[in-house]
Amino acid sequence: MINEIVKLVEPKKLEMNFEELNLPKNHILVKPTYMSICAADQRYYQGKRKKEALEKKLPLTLIHECVGEVLYDPKCEFSVGEKVVLIPNTPYEEDNIIKENYRLSTKFRSSSYDGFMQTMIHMRRNRIIPIQNIKPEIASMLELMSVAVNGIENFIEKAHDRRDTLAVWGDGSVGYVTALILKSYFPKSKLIVLGVNRDKLGYFSFADEIKLVNEVDEDFKVDHTFECVGGAGAESAIDQIIGCIQPQGCINLLGVSEDPPHINTRMVLEKGLTLLGNSRSGYSDFKKSVELLQNSQIQDYIENIICDRIEVKGLGDIHSAFEADLNNNFKTVMKWNI
Amino acid sequence: MNYAGILAGGVGKRMGRSDLPKQFLMLGSKPILIHTIEQFLISGEIDKIILAVPQNWKSYSEDLIKKYCESEKIDIIVGGETRNETILNICNHIVDTYCLGYDDVIVTHDSVRPFITQRIIKENIELCKTTDAVDTVVPAFDTIVEVKDNNTISNIPIRKHMYLGQTPQTFNVDTFIKVYTTLTEEEKNILTDACKMFVIKNKEVKIINGESYNIKITTPYDLKMASLMLGVEYKND
């Protein structure tokens, strides 16, 4: 059948493409219904990636945060109309040691291949997970949640057990969701969130303490940290973290930076710190995120950061959504009606 | 119930070639007609699809459906002499085969418009629940010129008031039958558009936005364009 696919052909230029879609054996046909815009999509859209990256990746179909409804399952394991979350990671080999999101052969939608801005998508059977009792616009945040879950699960495995004080650097969407899930995992730990924008920090009502980064004094000490800043601010955040973190603490890095930050390795060595890289997520992280989102309080907190909801009926609406996203504090959700 | 009426009664005289009606020509790996039907098959809004084809192409159409998209949702019937008569045949088939409901709508669509979107189908059905009929249109970007004697311009309407009609056209099934039965024989012969039939009988016809790419494949040029859009090889042999 004919599938409509939206491609970013150059920064801020979208085109509607058509492709014949023939369902591979045992795949499931899914219609996307709600999508949310990630900063990574925004960087492609705005042309903020390096020239070589844009030349290599474009034309590209954006969006990797998406929920949808099953249109057809040849095995009838999923019912028609069943709501599902779509996993953007597609592994191509088995590995008992390396997680699927770190394998070099794994493909990731809206980066190494086309994302979800399509009328319909065929998915492998283990790349969709049913979602129930969750509003679909909130469920479109599941990918973001799964990234935080991946980071926190890695942290649990690698960091030492003294977790009295945990701190999140970053007052954006990744910081918010990471802090929220961290509080859910470690309700007894003191959770501190540090950022640069007092208004945005005001959203973090579940945290035990919020701080502006320029209010941090020499006595401020934390056991472990999560860096969710990324971009140009990552370097100063990591530097501040190295100063505040207790010896043998774990610095969980979740922020993406286009330019490599300088890191004070002398202090990393002196304090015996662990720098733990976290990126993307896999099936188990999505599964855990769906479980977490069964909690209505977490749903409410997640809903609070949906700043703009835009119904997409054509390319003009997609431009409006990306513009709105640029000017709001947290997340933009597109109701996909192409 | 929401029905789709796929109008495949044409015999493709404008194609200027093959004896095979245009709706059966290949676009990529499937006939044009199949691409169109598939869009209605995956729509969660459509309960039944009634495909109206020429009498002598009925068995051929049954073979195609069996080969590409066999489904209990699809009925195949013979179309009429005119477009409106074909739609009437579809409506009569609904009345004869299923229990006609007061709110039942029929989404009629050209079989040779395979680039129909899910949004267009959904909006046709939603709007038709509130009115007598719905037409799918796009704004006219070219100036429309009226020439009644095939020679001299008689009128140039204001462009911003002009739209180009596409399909689907969607009707309340019961209303369609009632309106059609009020037509004189002369009206039946001159009314080539089903929505026009509603308009001249003072019924409300609302519009929804189509898409410029919801093209009708009528000529070899159209088929070439459709092949290019889909990134597939154009075959015209």
Question: What would your notes on this structure say?
Answer:
The complex is a heterodimer of chains A (338) and B (237). By secondary structure, chain A is of the alpha/beta class. Chain A has 2 domains: 2-141 and 305-336, Quinone Oxidoreductase, Chain A, domain 1; 148-277, Rossmann fold, CATH 3.40.50. In chain A, 30% of the residues lie in helices and 26% in strands. In chain A, the strands form 4 sheets. In chain A, strands 3, 4, 5, 8, 9, 16 and 17 form a 7-stranded mixed beta sheet that branches. A 6-stranded parallel beta sheet of chain A has the order 12-11-10-13-14-15, with helices on both faces. In chain A, strands 1-2 form a two-stranded antiparallel ribbon. In chain A, β16 (306-312), α11 (315-327) and β17 (331-336) form a beta-alpha-beta unit. In chain A, α4 (142-158) packs across α5 (173-185) and α4 packs across α9. The longest helix of chain A is centred in the middle third of the chain and has 17 residues, at 142-158. The radius of gyration of chain A is 20 Å and the shape is globular. The model of chain A has no long low-confidence stretch (mean pLDDT 96). Chain B is an alpha/beta fold and 237 residues long. Chain B has a single domain, classed as Spore Coat Polysaccharide Biosynthesis Protein SpsA, Chain A (Alpha-Beta Complex). Helix content of chain B is 34%, strand content 23%. Chain B has helices at 32-41, 58-68, 83-97, 118-128, 173-181, 185-190, 194-200, 220-230, and strands spanning 2-7, 26-27, 30-31, 48-53, 74-78, 105-110, 133-139, 146-147, 153-155, 163-172, 205-209. Chain B has a 7-stranded mixed beta sheet, sandwiched between helices. A two-stranded antiparallel ribbon of chain B has the order 2-3. In chain B, strands 8-9 form a two-stranded antiparallel ribbon. In chain B, β8 and β9 form a beta hairpin. In chain B, α3 (83-97) packs across α5. Chain B is globular, with a radius of gyration of 18 Å. The mean pLDDT of chain B is 93. The chains are: A alpha/beta (338), B alpha/beta (237). Chain A binds chain B through residues 1-2, 4, 16-20, 22, 29, 31, 69, 71-72, 80-81, 119-120, 313-314, 337-338, and chain B through 28-30, 35, 38-39, 42, 44, 114-115, 117-119, 122, 209, 211, 213, 229-232.
